[in-house]
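User: I'm curious whether this sequence folds into something compact or stays loose and floppy. Could you predict its structure so I can see for myself?
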Amino acid sequence: MQNSLKKIMAFVRSMELLDGYNATPLSYLSVYRTESKILQMPPDNMPYLFVVLDGSMHLYTPSGILDYVAGQYSVSSIDTPSKGNVLAFSENQDFCAFSISFNLNEVHEVMMEIDGGLAKQILDDAVPAKIMEQADKSVIDSIHSLLSNLDNTIQRDFMGRHIKREIIFQILCGPSGKHFLQSIVQIQQSGEIYELNSWIKENYRKPFSVEELAEKWNMSIPTLHQKFKSVVGMGLLQCQKRLRLTEAKRLMLDENKNVTEAALEVGYESISQFNREYKRMFGKPPKEDAQWLRESVKK
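Assistant: Here's the prediction. I'll summarize afterward.
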């Protein structure tokens, strides 16, 4: 894997990269480069793989802070944040990553061809650790194979489709397999709710009502409540609250915002309400939690 990663980085460094997402001859493959501490994650209207190439990052999710170093990847899901943070820059003082998007049909085709026993193992978290570890490494090797065909216009599209299927299979067999599988099933079962969830991620700072969203998505209020909770696992306003509080945590830790600044920036008008809801979600008042996190990072 390390050898493939070095070759991938040599290829990336040979490109003239602009700040942000850079297109490649394959429409589903983008190279991301930034010198900013704030990362813009790919749009999540399609499932995607976000592979760290040079530097490291962390993502703030409602379930915790997840760190990724070169060679590791994040798979999009319902609670994937729209922004991340650079944890450490490369020797070139930038951060580089690959984004590979998948359409539902591609993932569904691979899922349909998986042996029933393996599918059950994935859903039961029963894939042997050795196989998961090998699948994880193979993702990087397959990306290197994908890049090897970029300049060959005859083979590029054909080989790209097959290598992309390999990558999907390896993700499913790796540590993120169950998460990825469940996310795809959720999107297939209720695509409009996935779109609504993406809209909330973009607009969670603004006040909105369930009535407004029901009208916007042409559903009755009970149907919207039932569908959203079934797919996302929580109510609409609870989802908004979790996004606000998770972003507030990020602002205090990574941008050194104080409690009031963070609360106002994510859309709270009442600081006392923010304090109560933050403590209820994270177990500590915001100021104490931010201080504890900073001290933990230094150790």
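Summary: Residues 51 and 73 are 4 Å apart (CA to CA). The chain has a mean pLDDT of 87.
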